[in-house]
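Researcher: Next sequence.
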Amino acid sequence: MVKMTHKSVLSFSSYCSYSSRRGMPFLHSTPLVALFHSQSSNPTKSGETHLKNGTSKPRVSNVEDALKVFDEMLQRRPLPSVVRFTQVLAPLVKLKHYPTVLSLTSQMLLSGIRPNHYTLNITINCYCRLNRMDYALSVLAHFFKLGLQPDVATLNTLIHGFVLQNRVADAARVFRKMVVGGHCQPDVVTFNTLIKGFCAIGNNTAAIQLLGKMEANGCQPDIITYSTIIDSLGKDTLVDEAKNLFSEMVGRGIAPDLVTYTSLIQGVCNLGQWKEATRLLYEMASQGIFPNVFTFNILVDAFCKDGMVVQAKNVVQIMIQRGIEPDTVTYNSLMDGHCLRGEMDKAKQVFDLMVTKGSMVNVQSCNILINGYCKQKKMDKAYKIFKEMPLRGLVPNTVTYTTLIDGFCKAGRLQEAEKLFSEMPDHGQLPNIQTYNVILDGLCNNQQLSEAIEFLREMEGSKLKPDVVTYTIVIEGLCNAGEVQSAKDLFCGLSPKGVQPNVRTYTIMINGLCKGGLLVEAEEMLREMEQKGCSPNGCTYNTIIRGYINNSDTSRATSLIEEMSERGFPRDASTMELIVDLLSKDTVDPVLLAWLKDKV
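Model: Next structure:
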């Protein structure tokens, strides 16, 4: 067994010292953690005899079995060995009954059974799974008092616990201490766990760098290593990098599996590279690797998102022919595809098919259909699906409410939207920032600006603080109502509130200034936004150009058109319409005419 010296592992103990004395103090003194303090370093001799007597391994398939066997073992004299007790605990960990495992471990310690490496690793793992890293670190710190030293499995468990909580920096710190200590070197599990953590937080660069360090640390990457990074790259649409890594993996003699191919297929589908997706499917089949329901669902979803529902249905037919039953995810994607195309009758047919198949409809299924109806302003049908959800045993969530509220607002049925909003807490659903923004947008678009401002002030005084989207909605409402000065005041107050305007906020404010004839201020804002690190986009330029044209300043408009073209932004349809309108007049502005001649 690979072991760390007392000195090297003490660094982990000092690292753990901050662990559990903040937050929930009553947990720090729970019996189990306290028992580790009281354990003697002298091993008991109660148990090894039972192993030598050839007693069969306890059979545990559920919690009831475990409790019964455990209780019987505690009644025996002499007591069974710690190995026997651990054989009961291990299956419970697989069944994810972590609190039960900790409770039984506590009973074991109270009976005088001295824990071994496996027991302690199981305990640390349970605390990690329960998001109690403070306890996990506390158990680690008591290895020495028990005369034990953590091994690579112990530290892998700790790293995995940190990764589960997205505390990747802490996981990396443990990893570095392993490398520097030199007596408990990371293995492939260590590397793969940390790589998974980096990928989970979107740090593909760190994951790839860690892959490059594996061989230097005497550790060979495996299929899990490569598949994890390929999957992350594909999800971030870095398909070329994913393909390069795939080729590197094959070149090293590591055969891709279903997970690898599925990850790569998802990446190319996200970019609409259908030919490449088909090629990969054929390549899979030629190697005897066949798609599963997850692979097919990726294809169905990608086709539907591109509006290619016919192709998606063909994929579903292939699934059925291969004996793979479409699941809720499959049908939800099909419904979403029909909704995106405005084919609500067909979407409802898919929904009804799911209903006939049993318990296939979930909350997301209802949300998709409700959203489709809302987009078409068929609010009565959307509300009917909402009201039927409890009858199907489904609880509408915040997304359900927000979607319906948005639909009612856009349909001009503001009272019904506000009623739904007020009912949310009574049904156990708290509005989120999107819900508040939807209500604000509805108030502004229905010319209820005073209510919108009052609502905004209530938000500012609550725990749920407005974001840049919230303020942008109100600024746009004020501009559309001709209250440009009020919009300016609100805009100028954003930075002191710690809210940074984005390109949409600036563009809306510029549009308001242009409509108010304040063109000098509009252009000053155009220059200001770039100075503050927010680059204007094509929409921003087209907005101010239209402002100058509408205010008969063709000279400045043509200058900005030139600037916009140099930056690679095209003129949009509304701007071109104004230019064509100017050209169709009896007298064409000489500046515009000269500019056009220069461009021909």
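Model: The radius of gyration is 32 Å. The chain has a mean pLDDT of 84.
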